[in-house]
Backbone:
């Protein structure tokens, strides 16, 4: 597996998302990642710390440019809890739970992120502003309503299928509602 290519591909995917959704330090971008799928294997069968490291490198490079906050979804063995930095959990008033993700319970990406982030914690749930799913890990439960699909210029990172979404506020009202101020 070409790890440099993985770094480049995740940067392309994030860049494509940023073209559709301006994310900054106020926003959370959630990642659901199957490193097994990135490697061309069945989800949950061959987690890879090396792939997680390559993805994390590309993600951090893009975070430095845009400033968004990070969340990494764990696998179902930790009920899809999320790894975030403590400051994110405190700022967003998120419920911290007691577990440490490892490769076989949490997944390789979440386990790697937990060891790399500054003062990481695990939270039970989140309402992120946007999300990137590599390998069909099902991140929709962690997005704010209303999720809007975003297409990337590439459809795969490694061998993993890419799905992305941004969110927008609900449009409420009806025929009389106004959604933008006219000059």
Residues:
């Amino acid at each position: 597996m070409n790890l440099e290519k993985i770094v480049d591909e995740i940067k392309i995917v994030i860049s494509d998302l940023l073209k559709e959704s301006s994310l900054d330090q106020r926003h959370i971008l959630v990642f659901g990642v199957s490193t097994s799928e990135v490697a061309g294997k069945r989800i949950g069968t061959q987690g890879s710390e090396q792939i997680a490291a390559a993805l994390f490198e590309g993600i951090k490079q893009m975070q430095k440019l845009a400033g968004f906050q990070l969340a990494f979804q764990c696998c179902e063995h930790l009920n899809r809890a999320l790894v975030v930095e403590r400051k994110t959990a405190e700022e967003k008033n998120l419920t911290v739970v007691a577990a440490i993700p490892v490769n076989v319970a949490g997944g390789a990406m979440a386990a790697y992120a937990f060891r790399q982030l500054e003062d990481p914690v695990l939270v039970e749930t989140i309402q992120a502003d946007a999300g990137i799913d590599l390998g069909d890990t099902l991140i929709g439960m962690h997005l704010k309503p209303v999720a809007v699909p975003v297409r990337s210029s590439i459809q795969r990172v490694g061998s993993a299928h890419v799905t992305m979404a941004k969110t927008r506020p609900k449009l409420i009202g009806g025929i009389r509602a106004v959604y933008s101020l006219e000059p």
In short: The CA atoms of residues 24 and 64 lie 10 Å apart.
